[in-house]
Amino acid sequence: MTALFSPLQLGANTVPNRIFMAPLTRCRAGTEHLPNALMAKYYAQRASAGLIVAEATMAMAGNSSFWHEPGIYSAAQVAGWKLTTDAVHAAGGRIFLQLWHGGRACHPLLNDGAQPVAPSAIPITGDEVHTPQDKQPYVVPRELRDDELPTIVAGFRQAAENARAAGFDGVEVHGANGYLLDEFLRDGANKRGGAYGGLPENRARLMLEVIDAVSGVWGGDRVGLRISLLNSYNSMIDSDPIGLATWLAGRLNDFGLAYLHAMRGDFFGQQKGDVMTPIRAHYKGVLVANMGYSAAEASAAIAAGQVDAVAFGTGFLANPDLPGRIKAGAALNKPNPATFYSPGPEGYTDYPRMRAEVMT
Predict the structure, then answer these.
(1) Superfamily assignment of 2-359 in CATH?
(2) Which of 50, 105, 249, 293 is the most buried (most CB within 10 A)?
């Protein structure tokens, strides 16, 4: 496991290991999408990660799709997140905030009746969203006009400013899993014409404008991007994911990012293919992989130069001391899916750490 525990230069940050914590929506924020002390405890428990990427966080008001997810658009939210960044830094950790717009995955019942927006008027099918009125089908979104998109870019820019005020070490732009930027990127959800539709360079335009705006706040070397070109979650598909991966990987070299965070597969196994090889071949920066890696596979992939770090999701959810457990060869706690999105500390901050005799 030596490769997992070597330091890595991550843009402007140096991290002590290559075991990253993937962004995990946990729905523990309070009313008005306020981060709180319970969240600070949760993240501080996991500060031994090489990097924590905090959960998907609303860059601007009115685009909730998880009911109790946090935001970063108000002064109170900035103050709430400061509890987390202070706690993580006091524990010796490093933490980025994932900036996000839910796009068509939002629902009127979560957003004061507002219709969700998207690149095209195509709804998510085959799934439902949690709302104050139990689970509800997704609705048909309103197609955004080109002249509305600068306001979204500006919202991400302000969210980046707010994240800096909250004390984060950087930010990750959420361009994955069927939310707004990914909806523009992949042609299964983007059927528009004009400057933001059609060819890959047009479909990627909004994502790249957001990256440019956020980098203007932080510098590219404190900005990451997450993508999921094969993942069918939220009714997503692309007609040529390998071609898109190849083109996008090369284009992202222009931004000098801290890292590119790529999900290698599909949650549901519907779409197959290898996007990691073309991304590694064409992207010259730090590549972080995610999705279903064991510690042994992650170490081998890093040692072989296929990736530079691996982000673990449910492994960190159930094991606050995951790097220590991997290093010691200790057994892992099993996650409890029933508490992934439930309120309170159960299944959140009460997973046990290793026993002292295992650590020695």
Answers:
(1) Aldolase class I (3.20.20.70)
(2) 105
